Amino acid sequence: MKKVAIVQSNYIPWKGYFDMIAAVDEFVLYDDMQYTRRDWRNRNQIKTPQGLQWLTVPVKVKGKYHQTIRETEVEGPDWASIHWKSLTQNYRRSPFFDEVASWLEPLYMKPYTHLSDLNRTFLESICAYLEIKTAIRNSSDYTLSDGKTERLADLCVQAGASEYISGPAARDYIEAGVFSERGIQLTWFDYSGYPEYPQLWGEFAHGVTILDLLFNCGKDAPNYMKCKRP
User: In this predicted model, what pLDDT tens digit does every residue of 218-230 receive, in sequence order?
Assistant: First the structure.
């Protein structure tokens, strides 16, 4: 049984994204999809004393966003120092800030030209810290067919998947029969039931970047996720 998930890359995404990665044998970054503005592709939220704050990576856009995520370029290098300063100001009091910063800060010092490469670099480094061993590939590694559900199902076939795990939001458009015709089991991932963890700055928020969890809990982070280590 080989489990596969196919999801667009996000910038420092929330804990549920990494639970999805941990739940499968191969995680495909679906960055051949159209880039969407004001989405999770290039931004995420942190907690501050003033409430939630967006960290946004500026990108170059063409016309009416007729570009894929993979084609989307990062707009200059200045964003990196701004983001790191925000993270430092708001999380330096957290118990595991120094531990996480030892490998996270160097990521903000690297040069990036494209959003997909930036996102993948952060994803892989966070997975390494969480000891998530899932293979990560790009959708561009495969042949892409036409049709929204057909493309996903064909990617699974090419990856040798026997089970496709999808986020629950895709129920609105995925045609389950397309997967069953190819002998692939379709499973919906469950994002409910997360416990709260020690968190700075007021009312608890589940949907912030996973960096919030890492700064506050360090290597104990999986105990507050679905990908708990044995």
Answer: 999 999 999 865 4
Going by DSSP bridges, is the β-strand pair 43-48/135-138 parallel, antiparallel, or unpaired?
A: unpaired
Tally the domains of the chain. Answer: 1
Neighbour order of strands in the sheet with 163-166? 135-138, 26-29, 3-7, 163-166, 185-188
> Domain span at residue 152?
3-224
Query: Does 115 reside within a domain?
Result: yes
> What is the pTM assigned to this prediction?
0.96
Task: Kindly state whether residue 230 falls inside one of the protein's structural domains.
Answer: no
Positive or negative, the CA dihedral 168, 121, 84, 196 is positive
Q: Is residue 229 part of a domain?
A: no
